[in-house]
Every structure is written in structure tokens, then in C-alpha cells.
Amino acid sequence: MIVAASCGVFVALMVGMAYAAVPFYDWFCRATGFGGRTQVATAAPKGALGRTITVRFDANVAGGLPWRFEPEQNTIEVRIGEVFTVNYIAQNLSARETLGQAAYNVAPPTTGAYFQKINCFCFTEQRLAPGEKREMPVVFYVDPALMQDAELNDLNTITLSYSFYALREQSKPVADRGTSGTPRTN
CATH fold of 32-166, please? Predict the structure, then answer.
């Protein structure tokens, strides 16, 4: 009986750990920049340093989303600690409204802890009307703490990459589809 109970507890614990692994991994990546996950900043740094780094911009659209998506410029030289704004351009190529969400990362992956976004279109879903074209800004800086990381002394380039994915519209309850709850009269 004790062996069976122990096995049951062990199985329950393993199932619980499996469910907790995904949110825990997501939290870990956000906290450490692991896997190229960028950080979200709430304010600009106190000042810029003299060292510059090239930042490359990459744009992709997954199948199923009829958009053109590209950066306004492919590269810029940034001073570490200086705030920059760059724009991506998205255009809906279809005849219907579409909804998308951008996933992002930086390369090399070890720079994720130092790439700070203050504002980004990637934080929210994007809805484009048929044929709509929109500028989507990203406000960022490279954290001066990067200078303290001896492994990144030879770093010359960081690539910021976005991939847009189609989202499905959540189905609305019948009451929200424009029908009124009042009975018909003749």
C-alpha cells in the first residue's frame, strides 16, 4: 500500500512539474535574456558610452499571414546606452482584416540580457485593415552593463529579429454579434 501511494505521489509530482516547466522556462528567459530574449525597460539609461555596435534588423512573416513586413533600414550604428527608435513597416496584402503577433529575439543569444526595449509593437497584437500599411516603432537601447561582460568584448553586431504569426479572432458571444435580445414583432 505504501509503495502504491508513493508511486502515485511521484507520478502526480512529475505531471505537475511538466505543466510548470513551460511558464518557468518563459520566466527564466525573460529574467536572464537566455535564448536571445530581450529585456523590457521602464526608463532610459543615464548616459551613452563611446563604444558603438552595429544593430541589424530582420523581419519575417510566417505562412498563413498575408503581410509584407520589413525594417525601414537594415542596420544602424548605436552607441551603448543611447536610446534609438527604428521603424518596421507592415502591410496587409489581403482583402480582409487580419490579426498578427510578433515573436522576437536577438543574436547572439548572450546579448538578450543587455538589449532593452522601452516600447515595441511586439508587446501587443496588431490588427491591420485590408490593404492597410503601418509604421511600427521599436524604442530600445543596449545596456551599458554589456561593457562589464568580458565574453562580449569582441562583440560588433547584434541582430534584432521579428517573426509575425497569424492570430485567430476569438469568436464573439452571440449577444455581441450585432443581434439584439429583443423579440421580433410583426
Answer: Ctag/Cox11 (Pfam 04442) (2.60.370)
Residue 137: CB atoms within 10 Å: 13
Q: How far apart are CA 30 and CA 112, in angstroms?
A: 9
The pLDDT value recorded for residue 25 is 43
* Residue 184 Cα distances to 124, 159, 174, 176, 178, angstroms: 40, 60, 16, 18, 15
Prior bond of 108 cis (ω within 30°):
yes
82 pLDDT tier (thresholds 50, 70, 90) = very high
Write out pLDDT tens, residues 155-182: 999 999 999 999 987 656 656 555 555 5
Per domain, the residue ranges of the chain are 32-166
SS3 50: coil
Q: Give the whole-angstrom CA distance, residue 11 versus residue 29.
A: 27
Residues 6+ apart with CB under 8 A from 46: 81
Rounded Cα distance between 65 and 87, Å, is 20
Give pTM, 2 decimals. 0.68
Order across the sheet with 84-92: list the strands.
39-40, 115-120, 133-142, 84-92, 67-71
Query: What strands, in cross-sheet order, belong to the sheet with 52-61?
Result: 75-79, 52-61, 157-166, 98-107, 126-128
What is the spatial distance between Cα 164 and Cα 122, in angstroms, rounded to a whole number? 9
